[in-house]
Predict the structure of D-methionine transport system ATP-binding protein.
Amino acid sequence: MISVRELTKVYRQPTRDVVAIDDINLDIDDGEIHGIIGRSGAGKSTLVRCLTLLDRPTKGQVIVGSQDLTAVSDTKLRNARRRIGMVFQHANLLSSRTVAENVAMPLEIVNAKKAERRARALELLELVGLQGLEDTYPAQLSGGQRQRVGIARALAADPDVLLCDEPTSALDPNTTDDILTLIRSVADRLHLTVVVITHEMLVVKNLCDSVSLLEAGKIVESGKLSEVAADVNSQLSRSLLPLPTHQPVTADLVIEVVGKADAVNTPIGSTIAAENPVTVDIAAANIETLGTTRFAHYLLGINSDQPINLTGIEATLARHGFSVRVRAARGVQA
């Protein structure tokens, strides 16, 4: 497990203090792929550096397994970092070294024997689908292939944790899909815990088991992907399950609802109307699968010739597994 406790980083400047990350608390289970998403300037880069202690936090703890990285000596910290493999936005390969030599770099640093380094590099290149390219040079590879080399290099020291910093933001959509599939495959096969730092919601949707939203250095939402997506009041839910463009909705009551699993098969309009004296129009809808779970997100316009019992409608929807967010209510019982 990775546990982050009260993690804070303040950069001291002559005229002011800049709080880059502020009192972050986070738990990531063993074997989980956790996405940390945020816009530019949210604190993602600082968080990456603090998680690896490349930049020491002003306060707080980073616990990997049972070891608090903020409390160990420099020697023990170097050893602990070998348990964390890093995948960068750009693979940052050494152009003068072959693919196999790039993959073996972490082992060269710890003075592993040449034959051992070569054997490990070949094993990992096969794992990431680059067998036969071990003696080529980075300039001869595509962007996606270079990123695969970067992933193989991150695995060279047999880490427990894979930390991916914007691993697909420099890639085209098809290559992005391939790299996300590879990260999932490697994580499952090697039983890795993976942390993915990204600004792309597509990465979270297609790869992650859980997610945190980082804004202005703070985690403002966090949870299992299926739970976050099912909460219609969540900012993350609205990004994970966006509604299509639609015309403005004019109705006595306008609501958004989100349901998952069996709720997706519920005929939403007739279900509400069967228990409440209203008519229901579906203004917009999005049904899609996240992970292995199907979700439905609706925008509904509800009208009636009498005051609408919002409590009754919410109860109907709750019984069928939907969460509700009221957008507008002008014909609702007081």
